[in-house]
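Example 3.
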Amino acid sequence: QKEVEQNSGPLSVPEGAIASLNCTYSDRVSQSFFWYRQYSGKSPELIMSIYSNGDKEDGRFTAQLNKASQYVSLLIRDSQPSDSATYLCALNNFNKFYFGSGTKLNVKP
Amino acid sequence: GAVVSQHPSWVICKSGTSVKIECRSLDFQATTMFWYRQFPKQSLMLMATSNEGSKATYEQGVEKDKFLINHASLTLSTLTVTSAHPEDSSFYICSARGILLAGINEQFFGPGTRLTVL
């Protein structure tokens, strides 16, 4: 079983809609969680980090963490075509980072 | 966020030659640096983790004698691909982590180096 699981997608949403990206993880002791965005041919870019249960908002992005259910999600409000990319979920566990395989998001104009 | 640079951004070399890639943290001290490899349309694959002043820890299946990692300072790590072959052609990405807030740390990626071995 992989440490971090993501649906590979692609997830297609119309411009202006809310995109919901989900991630589950297997290790209950994980403390730090991250969402990265990766455009094709580019390296990942950190969007959000979240460390405690609940929601964390930053502009159009909201990260949600539920440690009891072992999932973390990313909501993108008012999706734009420029949000089209692969979104990677990651966690930090005992000085080691684990990445999901990423979910490809397509925002259609 | 913190800035990480990589050099070169792309390199083409002949089979059998060695290639060195530099990774620098520009505005923070990186306690740990990570090296990843990514093949087209695949996910990131961690190759090794390096801490300043100590030997790198390689992931299973990664040849330490082929991929030499040096982390000589808190701002610089290098990856040398020795005797490169076409199957080593890939996108190599480094990342760096430093203590930004007490007990909390994040990982920032360099822009990547695209290696093509002919």
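Residues 25 and 70 of chain B are 14 Å apart (CA to CA). Chain B is about 0% helix and 55% strand.
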